Amino acid sequence: MTTIALITLGGTISSESTGAGLGVVPVTGADLMCHEIQAWVPETNLIAHEFRLLPSASITLADLLELHAFVAALPGDVDAVVVSQGTDTIEETAFVLDVLGTAARIPVVVTGAMRNRASAGADGPANLVAAVLVAASPDARGMGVLVQFADVVHAARWVRKASTFHVDAFSSDPLGPVGLVSEGRAHVELVPRTRPVLAAPAHAGARIAHVSAGVSDDLALLPALAAAGYDGVVLAGVGGGHVAADAVRQVALAAAVLPIVLCSRIGSGPSPTATYGYPGGEIDLLARGLIPGRMLSPVKARLLLALLLGSGLRGDALRAAFDVHAR
């Protein structure tokens, strides 16, 4: 029998109404969730761990570092881990755990729900069952952290939430998912590229601003971020990662005192490094010291920058390490 630790963090999958007109909040813990799905996975021994009971917007990087350490300390008879949480930051949780190598020893699968427990057609139990099936599958070993949602299996590197309401809420554009669940069986077929593992940083206190560029945006706030106590910036430029010509001076002033990672605000596809040479294009911005975000979304680049700064990296060492883990 396979033993799987179900670690709950809260979110919609744990949420119920607290009264008429008051909305739903996370209230249901791991024990009840294990009990509800155990009959659907009779060959699995589920062990409940209520790690947090939070809306996912309130999960912190410190929480995720603690979760990484918690998984690493699980006893040797635990064969895999399923993490349940709110969908709003699933992509961030999965990415951090993946970068830290949380799934190096045993499979780790993250899931959640779009419909709360009181909704008609609540999807939480089905997602939990499918996540358990994926975690228990031999195919999940060596895959890094995975996200299972609506019977689709995604790699942590590429997954992102793509809908605020649809039950099939996640996408892995532009490369696509790595597997699926069908007829009670997980099929994980496409193997992600192996990447270097980043050691967990000494602290999680780095403050990283996420700034998105747009039409008529001079980005005048950027130079003030250092004085406001920020340690770094992720700049999500338009298109492949561009800003207006009028904003270049402000970007350059900020880049002289803070590490700035340049990403695309689009959410799908790589940020180019050698195509556009006009003022505010990526060639111009990278020449001014910005760090290329490569294929990472702004939210994932922000977390990687925080992890590296928390590890004490600065200057050229920071730039080199970011490039290694962003590719």
UniProtKB/TrEMBL annotation:
This is L-asparaginase. It comes from Sanguibacter gelidistatuariae. Residues 212-322 form the Asparaginase/glutaminase C-terminal domain. It comes from the Bacteria. One of its GO terms (molecular function) is asparaginase activity. Residues 4-188 form the L-asparaginase N-terminal domain. SMART domains: Asparaginase. InterPro entries: Asp/glu_Ase-like_sf, Asparaginase/glutaminase-like, Asparaginase_C, L-asparaginase_C, L-asparaginase_N, L-asparaginase_N_sf. Pfam families: Asparaginase, Asparaginase_C. Gene3D superfamilies: 3.40.50.40, L-asparaginase, N-terminal domain. Substrate binds at S56, T87, D88. The active site is at T12.
